[in-house]
Amino acid sequence: MESSTAAAEPFLIExxxxxDNTSEDWGIxxxxxxxxxxxxxxxxxxxxxxxxxxxxxxxxxRPTNDYLDAHCASHTSVWSPVVxxxxxxxxxxxxxxxxxxxxxxxxxxxxxxEVDEAWNALGLDLPPMLLTSEEAVKSGVSLDRVRVEExxxxxxxxxxxxxxxxxxxxxxxxxxxxxNADKYHDWKEGAWSNDEETLQKHIGHCxxxxxxxxxxxxxxxxxxxxxxxxxxxxxxxxxxxPDFQRSHKCKNFDTILQQTRKKKALxxxxxxxxxxxxxxxxxxxx
Length: 286
Known about the structure:
By secondary structure, the chain is mainly α. The chain has nine helices and six strands.
């Protein structure tokens, strides 16, 4: 007598695996060993395809140093006519300006013509450069700013690179240090040819400008501390000092300086310019 299951499902047959190595026809029920092997092969194949795809994608589309440099520069600065659409390179720079160490940096020496020439060579001797209207707009410069016409060496909008102005401000602070100021007062050159009130306002402007820049570009690196002995007096116990010799990622300054020198410069001698009808005129000196 048929079971109720068999009666309800007349086509249900009992699947039996007959151990016969000469036959490969297992229908829908392969032997357990071969079934597990196929599943393993499918799994391994899937993993290999996934690994190959991800590896290929990584090497084809991974961010290069050039891409990262360009992305960082564009994200942290507005478009600049100095570098245009070219990639601005970053480099690792080792800061080496110790407090008591044997630093021979000319930028920290006593006032002299040689020291001033070294500072000027950092871009302080650069005249304003001229931007076309298109460059001005891309740089965030409104077209109601001072414009120079063709008869005066234009057409174009005269601008100075902010980084070089910041170095000018730092140089002025160096000159105004109490142990340097007398020399520059005597020479009466540049900012020091102005009256005392104007000079003080100029120095105050530079102090505040550098404060703003340093806060804007705040370096999140760290200075560890080191123990240091006194080579002149061995009886003095070691003291704790900040370690100022650290590596940093910096924009390539030489590239910026060279590219600025290549730009069209404004010849300020015999320059006679007047406000245009669409020029912005401030109600007082800024």
